[in-house]
Amino acid sequence: MMDYSKAINHTVAEIKPSGIRKFFDIAATMDGVISLGVGEPDFRTPWQIRKAGINSLEKGKTKYTSNWGIAQLRSAVSDYVKRKYSINYQPDEEILITVGGSEAIDACIRAVVAPGDEVIIPQPSYVCYEPITRLAGGVPVIIETKAEDDFKVTKKQLENALSPRTKLLILPYPCNPTGAIMEKEDLEELADVLKGTNVIVLSDEIYAELTFGGKRHVSPASIDGMWERTVTVNGFSKAFSMTGWRLGFACGPREIMDQITKIHQFAIMCAPTTSQYAAIEALKNCDGEVERMVHEYDMRRRMMVAGFNEIGLVCREPKGAFYTFPSIKSTGLSSDEFCERLLYSKKVAVVPGTAFGESGEGFIRASYCYSVEHIKEAISRIGEFLKEL
Amino acid sequence: MKYEILKLLARNAKYSAKDIAVMLGSDEDTVAKEIAQLEKDGFIKGYKAIVDWQMVEDSYVSAIIELNVVPKAELGFEEVAESIMKYEEVESVYLMSGSYDLNVVVKGKTLQDVARFVARELATIDSVTQTTTHFVMRRYKEMDVVLAGDEKDDRGQLFI
Ligand SMILES: Cc1ncc(COP(=O)(O)O)c(C=O)c1O
User: Fold this and answer.
1) Quick one: closest CA in B to A296, which residue?
2) Does the complex come out with an ipTM higher than 0.85?
3) pTM as predicted
4) Could you report the per-residue pLDDT of A115-158, keeping only the tens digit for each?
5) For residue A273, how many other CB atoms are within 10 A of its CB?
6) Which residues of B touch A17 (CB under 8 A)?
7) How many other C-beta atoms are found inside a 10 Å radius of the C-beta of residue A125?
8) Ligand 1 pocket check for A122: Cβ under 6 Å
9) Which of A127, A372, A373 has its CB closest to that of B160?
10) Which of B25, B155, B157 sits opposite A24 (nearest CB)?
11) d(CA B103, CA A254)
12) Which residues contact A96 (CB under 8 A, 6 or more apart)?
């Protein structure tokens, strides 16, 4: 008999599968469930982008591309990040096209972190940073961001988390699930703390285009002294509604990018060719489409925030991404209990805050990648649920 | 803001002033006043349900009639368009560019009803030189709303 416990890498075996998986598998089998659960846009990829992908197929562009990605796309990325976020990267050797932001995050962490190295991860945040750190043998050092700080990383928290073993700081802003953003002054304070260290910053800016209330996203690499230590990760999934195309990119100083690209070269070869051709169109000609979607998200965002506050769940105004993160502390339930009971009694699926780290206890994540009608119905059911508690 | 309000009401006439105010970051009073003004000024002509008549037992037939018309010297197409739109059977009348002049959508209970109406009322108008009738076989989408088959949310079970 095989003893799989001996066969499998224990670091992998010890990684917990996402705890809410089972819960949502149940939701998927129930009838009449309405979900505020998913983290991907409901909009289809704008037609002109799809068309660009189709055109490339018609022309027979079905081969591998350069490891770094098509030159024309890297050039478009260079123009785009300069135009949008005032950061300068050379198309050659400073920009790598990846399989989603996901691959960029994975390769960056692996390129920087050796066994025993510490990685500072603010939470609540997206679920991938901690397991990938562990796979690299790294030690996650968690910063618990607080609602009263608008879920930002403070200077003090960073100072306390830093140690001589710190190799990498993750900056997951705009933040899934909290909707928090970091403004210029916030970033300058962190830059101050990092000055003189060799700590690298992995800035996950996948939601950079989705900011609201007149606040534009500020890239950490645009802050004085930060460019040289920052790997900027972004992608097409959220801004352009292109989740299934699996395309993203990483930008940084060539000393780091060369190493990241080695991992990419051997593990992946190159990002999907069709997606790369489509992405050129996205970056060059789709500002209007993105604006239209952002406007739509903004209306839904206001609707959801107002709705939660009205039924008695305190909900701060998220400034970015497409999630609200209301507090459920007033119910006295844990996040898990709240979500499970809500699912069974009112058939509404939301994600417990604890899925994004222990500091998410007392919160739920509700996505507004849904129509206004859908959101209203869900909130009204949650309202009934609260009344019956 | 007028334009934003119109866009939202055209999407769903049941949005309340409060809903719209929340979505646009305004207040209920202001929006209610704007809507009243838009109604008064005729920007909003009315509100009605989008019915899928194919689902209603009583049968429902409609046809698109292309009319070729000799325009009048002074009045152009106005006169004939106005006389056509007075009929209850007529759902819409459009002046068209291209190979014919007026596009008239006619509804009735049966094919015969519609055919009879075209033959008796439209074809007999003096300035109408030709009619071409196209019966609607199936309605897939009506006023932006999909009637045939649901547009399913096909997002996967990836929840994070
Ligand atoms: C914060 C964050 N980073 C990265 C990703 C991964 O995105 P991609 O589709 O580009 O791999 C997600 C997806 O949900 C995310 O929320």
Assistant:
1) B23
2) no
3) 0.91
4) 999 999 999 999 999 999 999 999 999 999 999 999 999 999 99
5) 18
6) none
7) 27
8) no
9) A127
10) B157
11) 64
12) A68, A69, A104, A249, A250, A251, A257, A260, A261, A264
